[in-house]
Write a structure and sequence with these properties.
This protein is mainly alpha-helical and about 325 residues long. It folds into two domains: about 1-215, no CATH class; about 220-275 and about 285-330, no CATH class. The chain has helices at about 5-40, 50-70, 90-135, 145-160, 165-185, 190-215, 215-240, 255-260, 300-320, 320-330; strands at about 70-75, 80-85, 265-270, 295-300. The strands form two sheets. A two-stranded antiparallel sheet has the order 1-2. Helix 3 (about 90-135) packs antiparallel against helix 5. The longest helix is centred in the middle third of the chain and has 47 residues, at about 90-135. Mean pLDDT is about 70; it is low at about 245-285, about 290-295 and about 320-325.
Length: about 325
């Protein structure tokens, strides 16, 4: 049977493995936040490599056992690739111990940990505000926030955004488990629940990408890279090439601006051949073969072209307003 092939079983194994790996990776994020924020302790012997090894090896072991037992393949109830004879009690036990149990435990632990983290942050915020109000009673904290309060808000915002990582499997895997329970109990499939479970599983990667794009660490890295590009290909380039400011001489061809490039130029030599019958001073006719002379012509190298193109790109898309330029200048310009 074509549907009950090796590719069918391999696709089921891949779904189980990558789902469990995703859950365990998010669980590692929650454990790390809980140890660093709530417990205020972080074991130096436990590094990111240990989290990564556990999150990759443990799902591999859990997913390879049913694959070796030949339990993965085509199902007649759903008409798709999943555990064989899906809906039977024996088969559901395998699903529970190799897949659903770990997803549920990861989701429950993530929920409890997130609640503890949020409760701890709220408690810390109230304690900090009380201490600052007691120390500076005459200054309204809303108008004059102290640096410690600002740092606490930044940390809270970072933790809140990071907590979205374990929330994603909580949303996406809930309907998957509900669909499995309905199939085992009633021996039938409720199409709305089944459809939502498929959509939730498919959207898990998209939701993770959205959370990752709004991660404070990613935003800080993008901002640092943007400042680096502006400093290297805008400020440093203008200083080396002695180019006019941004608001002057905006129009101009690439060749005109590349004419300023002198430090990165390579020298090409062409031979100028005088036409036959050319008469020099004094009436002496000079042979064309004897009057060849080498004239050095400068032509920009690839580095010069690339630096200039990057300069135009940074000036057009990254440095748009003078206020932005002044702000960046305060951060990256040499002092």
């Amino acid at each position: 049977m074509a549907s009950d092939s090796f590719i069918c079983s391999l696709s089921v194994w891949g779904l189980i493995y990558f789902t469990l790996a995703s859950v365990f990776l998010r669980l590692a994020v929650v454990v790390n936040i809980q140890l660093a924020v709530v417990k205020s302790t972080k074991n130096a012997s436990i590094t990111e490599l240990h989290y990564l090894l556990v999150a990759t090896i443990l799902p591999l072991l859990l997913s390879i056992v049913p694959a070796c037992a030949n339990l993965l393949g085509w199902t007649t109830h759903e008409g798709t690739c999943w555990f064989r004879d899906d809906g039977k009690s024996r088969n559901f036990i395998w699903q529970w111990f190799s897949y659903y149990m770990w997803v549920i435990l990861g989701v429950l632990y993530s929920i409890v940990s997130i609640l503890l983290i949020v409760r701890y942050l709220r408690k810390q915020k109230s304690e900090i505000q009380e201490d600052m109000e007691a120390a500076v009673p005459r200054i309204p904290l809303e108008c004059n926030p102290l640096p410690h309060s600002q740092s606490a808000d930044i940390i809270k915002q970072t933790v809140y955004r990071t907590c979205w990582y374990p929330i994603i499997p909580t949303i996406s895997q809930s309907f998957v488990m509900v669909n499995a329970l309905i199939l085992t109990a009633k021996k039938e499939i409720l199409f709305p629940v089944y459809l939502i479970s498929i959509i939730g599983t498919a959207l898990q990667g998209t939701l993770t990408a959205i959370v990752f794009a709004n991660d404070p660490v990613v935003e800080e890295s993008c901002g640092h890279f943007r400042r680096h590009l502006i400093k290297k290909y805008y400020y440093d380039y203008e200083q080396v090439q002695h180019l006019p400011p941004k608001d002057q001489n905006r129009k101009g061809s690439i060749a005109s601006l590349l004419s300023n490039v002198s430090s990165h130029e390579t020298t090409a030599v062409i031979t100028s051949i005088r036409s036959p019958g050319f008469t020099a001073e004094g009436g002496t006719k000079i042979n064309s073969m004897a009057t060849n002379e080498s004239i050095p012509i400068t032509q920009p190298s690839f580095t010069s072209w690339f630096s200039h193109l990057m300069y135009r790109f940074v000036r057009r898309f990254l440095v748009r307003e003078m206020s932005t330029v002044n702000e960046i200048d305060a951060n990256v310009s040499p002092r």
